[in-house]
């Protein structure tokens, strides 16, 4: 027997009160006001990544005109924004749509079971409050929106290295940054070369004796203005709403053009990026070794450094970037030379089991063997799941990176129209 609305707890349950979950809640409020929904958040605050991570300098690596919501203009002067500003923006979005009473904190979804008989989902939900002894509860819903992201918030990715157990310094993961960590005057080694590493280096460098970013494989890095002068002019002349729309569209076209140039003319793009790096660094810096990835530009995302802050610290001699095709013994040897060093694992986060399982099922069950979804998944900035109550199938829903110019699929739109 199909479940009726009177027998269901909610029409929609949103898992996660981060940027994706808050965005989904807005559209339910705006486009389906008759539907009931709840947001379940395992932590004690909204914001997801932007509240969890507390390492020095944490910021976006995309401009907020495109990373932010289309329905809520980004009006802050910083286009590459730090975490506190992004959190203020998200709190504003919650207030604008009166979502506070829809969010239940300290609730973790342990399982989601589909019933063909009732055509509904039953969620097993545990309380995560410290000291809570309550047994897991069940919630029934017609739809699930998973805004959990990819990563395991409990434990970041932490490979072991030879000699780590006898290392005299501290070993820190950016995902679990101690509030009282004092790195002033210390020698620091950052392991990694992605967005976290290029954020940490310039943020920490002024207070350290010396800091090294040790990378197995270099990344493509490009300087961008933290405050976009053209965007500020558009907001001043056109007003906040129209100025934001102009800035958003301009940023989309700009990123799309850069992406397509890199894909069509990879050698020219590689040469241009190396030239930009060389212009920002001392004349004797070995750009060919330390800023020369073995893959083509935009085969992986480019890392951005606002106002070229990382180059400035390298130029001062306060910081260095080393590409060593790093293996574990090489890392151990380098760190041994800095026995008092602070070793930071800026090498990403471990994948969340719930999200990983759902995405695997989605790709494995696709008609074309997952090729289309896999391409979309690589290019998705924020990826979540709508879980279809009619079929029990997982369907990838992504707010695509603007460089792809992608839009929501016809299939997804048909699903949304059923709400």
For the secondary structure, the number of strands is 15
Q: What percent of residues are in strands?
A: 15-25%
**Anisotropy-based shape:** globular
Helix fraction? Answer: 25-40%
Q: How much is the average pLDDT?
A: 80
Query: What's the SSE pattern?
Result: EHEHHHEEEEEEHEEHHHHEHEHEHHEEH
Termini gap: 20 Å
Count helical runs. Answer: 14
Q: Tell me the radius of gyration.
A: 23 Å
For the sheet with most strands, the description reads: 8 strands, mixed
- From the helix content, strand content and strand pairing, which structural class follows? alpha/beta
Taking pLDDT < 50 over at least 5 consecutive residues as the criterion, the unreliable ranges are: 336-340, 353-419
Descriptive account of the structure:
By secondary structure, the chain is α/β, with parallel strands linked by helices. It has 14 helices and 15 strands. The protein has helices spanning 19-31, 49-52, 64-67, 83-96, 195-204, 229-238, 240-264, 266-280, 287-290, 309-316, 328-336, 353-364, 371-379, 410-417; strands at residues 10-15, 37-41, 103-105, 107-115, 120-127, 137-146, 170-172, 187-191, 210-215, 221-224, 303-306, 319-323, 342-345, 380-387, 394-400. The strands form 3 sheets. Strands 1, 2, 3, 4, 5, 6, 14 and 15 form an 8-stranded mixed beta sheet that branches. A 5-stranded parallel beta sheet has the order 7-13-8-9-12. A hairpin with a 6-residue loop joins β14 (380-387) and β15 (394-400). The protein is globular.
